[in-house]
Amino acid sequence: MKLIDIVVPCFNEEEVLPLFIEETNKVIATIPDYDFRYIFVNDGSRDGTLRVLRELAKKYDNAKYISFSRNFGKESAMYAGLENSTGDYVIVMDADLQHPPAMFPQMIAGVEEGYDCCALYRAKQKGENPIRQLVSKIFFGFQNKISDVKMPDGAVDYRIMTRQMVNSIIRLCEKQRFSKGLFCWVGFDTKWVEYQNVERTVGTTKWSFWSLFKYALDGITSFSVSPLRFIAVLGFIISALAFIWIIITLIQTLIMGIDVPGYVTTLCAVLFMGGIIEMSVGVLGEYIGRIYIESKDRPIYIAKETNLEDKEN
User: Fold this and answer.
1) What is the pLDDT of residue 312?
2) How many Cβ atoms sit within 10 Å of the Cβ of residue 131?
3) Which of 44, 90, 193, 213 is the most exposed place for a label (fewest CB within 10 A)?
4) Is 255 exposed, middle or buried (0-12, 13-18, 19+ CB in 10 A)?
């Protein structure tokens, strides 16, 4: 029988984990001819998540976990789960049940059809803030225009992948990860399936608006240098306009005898150029900062505890 590993990043999920494994086991029981194994990754939770994972590991033989030494982020947790997986197929999903386990049969059917991956995207975001929905839509549209990595609007991390695809993703060892993009960047044949988003019934979301903004920024800078090209083009346009303005001003002054514009014009020009320079330095700083972090070559995560006996810490 084929083994399917279920990778589940966890951060402060003490309340929802028992319900998650209970609901997921109900679905697994209806799928014959496959063995399932959980790989929970405790991402430095500050509540009782680790205690609950230990209890689940004692109760269920197929419940495995990795616990980080501190919070490294969801991206690192997903990487750890993928790196420690050995299954023929690997499912990545959240623990909050907003990724419905009921989609398992359809996802498995997708890879059995010959696809390397069956990934999901949200059709409707129930209970989602309208502003957040709008920002998400803008992000996916902008990302797809400036990058060669294309993702459907509403794409999520919830997916099943073949062993070959998982091994390819593990080889990508960058520290600042944007998995949605990496899943697409490695290629392979992906079947996209629409699903209805489920409202979270237990616990609260760990994503603030600022966290989502930084995550989106990681996605843009990880797969495109268009912002750098934009400021280069902007600088050329401003220089060209400035040169034209200088010529016009000289003609007005030397030939037509019109006074050179004074204080207000100078102030506006200085403030405008100052803003452009600050923006350009900020964009350059984002890319340089990422080069700096990658050059340190620090590990993506540090595991403190695990019950995966066949893996070294």
Assistant:
1) 41
2) 9
3) 213
4) exposed
Q: Which two tokens stand for residue 229?
A: 């090209």
* 8 A C-beta contact, residue 69 and residue 44: yes
114 vs 112: CA distance, rounded Å: 5
- Of the candidates 105, 116, 102, which has an alpha carbon nearest to the alpha carbon of residue 197? 102
Within a 10 A sphere around the Cβ of 88, how many other Cβ atoms?
16
Please report the sign of the dihedral spanned by the C-alpha atoms of residue 42, residue 208, residue 160, residue 122.
Answer: positive
Q: Are strands 63-68 and 303-306 parallel, antiparallel or unpaired?
A: antiparallel
Among 90, 35, 38, 85, CA closest to 64 = 38
Q: How confident is the model at residue 44 (pLDDT cuts 50, 70, 90)?
A: confident
**DSSP category for residue 71:** -
Instruction: Classify the C-alpha dihedral 310-311-312-313 as positive or negative.
Output: negative
**β-pairing, 89-92 with 2-10?**
parallel
